[in-house]
Amino acid sequence: MRSNQRPDQMKLGAFFHPTGHHVAAWMHPGSQIDAGTNFQHYVKLAQTAERGKFDLMFLADSLAVRDASREALSRWPQYAVYFEPLTLLSAIAAVTEHLGLVATASTSYSAPYNVARAYASLDHISGGRAGWNVVTSGGAAAAANFGRVDYAHDERYGRAVEFAEVVLGLWDSWDDDAFVRDRASGRYFDPDKVHTLGHEGEFFSVRGPLNAARPPQGHPVLFQAGGSPPGRELAARLCEAVFTPLHTLDAAQSFYQDVKSRMARFGRTPDQLKIMPGLNPVVGRTTREAQEKHEYLQSLIHPDVGFEVLSNALGGYDLSGCDPDGPLPAELDTMHTEGGQTQFKNVLGWARNENLTIRQLYERFAGARGQRTVIGTGAQIADEMQAWFEAYGVDGFLIQPPYLPDGLDEFVAEVIPVLQERGLFRTEYEGKTLRDNLGLARPASRYAAQAEA
Predict the structure, then answer these.
(1) φ, ψ for residue 345 (rounded to 5)?
(2) pTM of the predicted model over 0.85
(3) How many CB atoms lie within 10 A of CB 427?
(4) Which member of 92, 209, 219, 234 has the lowest number of beta carbons within 10 Å of its beta carbon?
């Protein structure tokens, strides 16, 4: 769906897995091997991304150590230990000025009040740069850590919608001008400008008000990751940016059209949502150098890790005992999964449409964790990004360097200048908040809007 209001420049986020996005990144000499417990590593990444004028940095999260064999996990450290993201981003806020700070928080094993308070606090600490990636959590490992039974897929999304609506309501607990702080009159806030939410719903009962002032952005920016029908509906209804794996321009254009066309039903316009699929760039000074870098990374994937990664993408299907040079078992064609459905369908589609073996599948999927990989020089990677942007397949990209910090340094040095020279990406930040830089309006409080009406 074309929008006359869409800006001429793309938006860019930087996704920081600890040592990098490639599943074997920790083995690469250009990665920080102790990244999961090294705060200064993240300081360097954030400041490099800010120097490159990225809109935001993004941190994913998990509520369990990966439920994998100990042997595989010992060769796959990114899913063993890493910082709690909101704690880390609060510290990063003190050493950056413009970079948006976006983190995942699960609606499956959190409470709306705690999430609303944490992100409001981050928005105040950072001066209006916070963003919440609204996710649901599936899998027995996370459920076991909270004494729960895993939620069904559609139930998770129903809960997520109500959860997000409660959080949005709590962020409006205090009017923007509620705090008069007047020593002369002895009044700290206007009692008519604080609001009790009083939510009673299917999944949550939340009284309010929130014990945090209204965030500088009004609402921290809402993100969503995934491409299933319930996920698309959640994005169209409430979210302001979407991260999702897209591998072909046709698929990207279809997703772009579908999600943005849903927004009118919720009183929203297409420019209020940014589509930013993942992009795994392998950058070289020459095409051959880039290809050699990728081949080296792929050579580092241990078969035990490859099987575990692929099994996880296939809803936990046990691939042990399968021939790595044979096809996926036929029963997967009729299997239902409660896990991530987008990646399940992508992997199964590659297997059947391209006749890929299990080894070929895990090399493709594990290399970029299911995201699209582009290999080439800075100009060649910029060409690919420009083609998708100008064809209305994306509003920007979530850049996922294969190893860190070197992969980010290479992207900022080789790709960003090309995009800037072509007028496709900013040379200076537009404003001080994440909303300013993403081109998103600051939402009015629901209570102020009601009063005005």
Answers:
(1) -70, -35
(2) yes
(3) 12
(4) 209
